[in-house]
Amino acid sequence: MLKRRDLYHIALEQSDNISHEQSEYIAFACKHIARQQKHHYMLTNPFIYDIIFSRGLRKALSLENSRLTASYLFTETRMKAIEKEAEVVSSEEKVKERVSDTAITGLTSEQVAAEVAAGRMNVVKEKAGKSYGRIIADNLLTFFNLIYFIVTVVLVCLGAFNNLTYLFVVIPNVLIAIVQEMRAKRMVEKLSVTTEPKATVLRDGVLCEIDVSEIVIGDVMRIEMGKQVLSDSVVLSGIAEANESMLTGESDAIKKQEGDTVLAGSFLVSGSVYVRVIRVGRDNYVHKIESAAKGFKAPASNLFRDLNKLIKYIGIFMIPMTAATLISNYFALDGNIKDMLVKTSGSVIGMIPAGMYLLITVTLTLSVILLSRKRTLVQDMYSIEMLASADIVCLDKTGTITDGTMCVSAFEAIGGTPCDEIKKIMALVEGSEESINNTSRALIEYFGKESGEIVDKIPFSSARKYSAVTIGGLGSFAIGAPHFVPCPVSEELEKKIGLHAAEGERVLLLARLDRLDGEGEAIAMIAIADRIRPSAKETIAKFQEQGVTVKIISGDHAATVSTIAARVGVANAEKYISCESLSDEELVMAAENYAVFGRVTPEQKVLLVKTLKKNGHTVAMTGDGVNDTLALKESNCAIAMADGSEVARKVSQIVLLNSDFSTLPDVVREGRKCINNVRGSAVLYLMKTLFVICLSIFAVCTVSGYPLEPRQMMLIELFVIGISTVLLALEPNNRRIEGSFIRTVIIRSIPLALVMLVPVLVAMVTSEFIPMIFASMGDSLTPAMRDFAEIFSVSSECRSSVVMLVLTAVSYINLVSVCRPFTKWRAGVCIFIGVALAVTLPASVYIHYLLPFIEFDMLAILPAFENPIFFIGMMGIGVLLAVLLSVLRPILEGVAFRAADKLSSLKRKK
Asked: What is the structure's pLDDT at 812?
């Protein structure tokens, strides 16, 4: 790639009618286009100049045969945007004519009212998050709810109302999910109001704050460093640099001054300007290239991705399996249509794990509500999962570990310049600043602020790390970070800087320059101290106790950041590195080996996050400034402070409304509790699904008929799975989230499903084949053999009832097995479910016998007592097998996990 000065000279040679500044823009564009050549259109010079200089879209110039050939880089969307822009040029000119007389005084109330009446407001009818109608639809209109509806219609048509008991589980689950999601939406919307950006506009000659939707064409807005441009505008006065990465993907700041266009969606990284609004609402450029403007997309949830995949596979399997079960039941039940449909309905409903999806939704929603009460705004449910999965959290020093307030702790004149003169210079320098940040406040508090003749200036930016100003009668001065201010640093001065850095202080150098863009010599050193948040040390300790590695990434001096990191207890804080002279390759190598990174540019922050992610880490990133925005977008979970920049809040999934990161460990803890407990609970749901699938396959293969009706699974659905999983999801759980959700749940579910299946198969096989075997023996049977055969000669109703009771007992044993090792909470859940089952079973019989006019055997228990010996024998066999397999379950799980790991490694090798 050619150097910038070469491009600059070529640009100058190509046209005598372009200005010095325009040539700089051309050179700037040339510098950054060489690595982005994709689709391009060869355009004539006048047209490209028009686009570059009149429209504010400075892009894509390349070199060919040492001549400047204009080629504009367009995606199809952007090309259409330019064509559309050409259609509205005449209307925009009329707009400019209409607002030209507003100058810098802004609109009057009458003019605003006229614009509002004409509908020229910055209103875009788009709402963040789901609407209430969408929430209801998403929870009602699901594949499994459609299956429930079809089964319900079939059972109602058959008059099998006693088999509709599953609705007592399904309907409350759906209603709870809808209510909780709506509740979370209301709470999030309420909290979001405090984080929505406000526009500072000049109306009736007075600056005032208004909502974004209240901006009208012709409004004069004041935009400061760190603020987002809220509507397409033209700069009236001031100088600033804008980052348009959300529109173009380019992270480099673009200089903006009088006459330039600033686009909605971009934000200022330095300076401040007054602008006049020329487009509002959907006419803004950001909406014309919506796909490019969305710059940030919420990360996909691993949990929901795996769950959706699992449900998809089950749904696909259910269709042919239902048909096969229907045919098998028809032959097994001698063509009894009603019994055939009822038994098939039991198989279909048993295969549905829909409660698992509802459990996850409700659990995450409850977490969102709980965190909102702690002044933590969670933009979507998936963010909790991503932060809970994080094993590295990258913290910025300023505004995160420190509270953002500063004071001048030391001041020293250098080179014999009188202190009074330096104080005068500093007062004038700070007086030239149009935007005030925490550093400026500390300097103004110490040196004061005076107005002077400002001839020219270079505003501060996070990439440049210094600002410069030319003051009439005094000369040019630069102030900023050592080694970035254009002046030499002596060994003696370097030692002093190191001493202050060792105390955790930030050092600024004031230099007198020979010209604004030239070099000079240092005339003063100023040390500024940050104030550490009182809760910082405790918060860092909580993170590290949770197994989360803390890395500090800051633009400040590395030694300074290291000292502060050590004071708050960051592990390996002594392992620090200054990134100012590192190449990208060296930074990638350093990412894992250091805990503190100083003098980091915004681009280096992004590279660090990318490297950590590439190394297999889940990275959470906190930030509050515009320099953090790109890294926030790149991280798995972005966390912003409410009092930080609007842009940082916009791209973050979590916003700390009290701007105190001490609440973050609570978010991690809540997320881990949610995800870990959901994994444990999902095992119970999938246990039932796998059991029903295996039993249905057995029934089809043997043409023995599926043995269970829908109502006979109610105890398992309601108590062993439904209520118990909700209770278990509330238990505190701070373990690290590891492994794949779907892999873990399936492997742990298989032994449990086997525990349920074996006793049922024993009951079915013995009741089906033993009587058949003895019957084939004819007259050779002895009386004892006949009595033995009689024990297994049971009706299909008796067998189904016995199977249901055996299943209930075995499922409860599985629940107890899943809860091991016991805690007080898990033991309490097991006792509660045991008591509930012990009460419900007799109660259903009690109702039937004491209220015979009801004629409703709710759980179909009574047929089991037709043959007490068969019932007791099957129950004993079932319980013994369940206990034995439960003892062996950890071994079976270990074998399954090792086999899965070996299979995965073989796939990777291939």
From this structure: 92
- What span, in angstroms and rounded, lies between the C-alpha atoms of 240 and 481? 20
Beta-bridge partners for 466: 480
Neighbours of 472 (CB within 10 A): 10
pLDDT score at 442: 85
Separation of alpha carbons 233 and 244, rounded Å: 14
pLDDT over threshold 50, residue 651 = yes
Distance CA 362, CA 139 (A): 11
As a whole number of Å, the CA-based R_g of the chain is 36
Mean pLDDT, the chain, whole residue set: 76
The reported pLDDT for the residue numbered 754 is 85
- Asked if 262 and 282 count as a contact pair (C-beta separation under 8 A), the reply is no
- What mean pLDDT do residues 743-747 have? 82
Is residue 476 within 8 Å of residue 516, measured between CB atoms? yes
Peptide bond preceding 868 in cis form (omega within 30 of 0): no
Q: Are 174 and 723 in contact (CB under 8 A)?
A: no
Residue 386 near residue 653, CB atoms below 8 Å: yes
Residues 771-795 as b/e (b if ≥16 CB within 10 A, e otherwise) read beebeeeeeeeeeeeeeebebbbbe
Higher-confidence residue: 367 or 203? 203
Distance (Å, whole) CA 853 – CA 858: 13
Residues 889 and 732: their CA atoms lie apart, in Å, by: 24
Kindly list the distances between the CA atom of residue 454 and the CA atoms of 269, 458, 599, in Å, as whole numbers in the listed order. Answer: 21, 11, 30
CB 632 within 8 A of CB 621: yes
- pLDDT digit string (tens) for 210-219? 888 889 988 9
The whole-angstrom separation of Cα 421 and Cα 899 is: 77
Determine the average pLDDT of the residues in 286-315: 61
Higher pLDDT, 738 or 505: 505
Integer angstrom CA distances of residue 274 from 225, 295, 431, 435, 461:
12, 26, 18, 12, 18
Q: Strand 549-553 and strand 520-532: pairing?
A: unpaired
Catalytic residues: 396
- Burial class for 86, CB neighbours closer than 10 Å (0-12, 13-18, 19+): exposed
DSSP 653: S
With cut-offs at 50, 70 and 90, classify the pLDDT of residue 3.
very low
d(CA 251, CA 574): 32
pLDDT at residue 644 in the model: 66
pTM of the model: 0.62
Q: If phi over 0 gives left and psi between -120 and 50 gives alpha, with beta otherwise, what is residue 477?
A: beta
Token output for 757: 């299946």
pLDDT at 125 (0 to 100)? 54
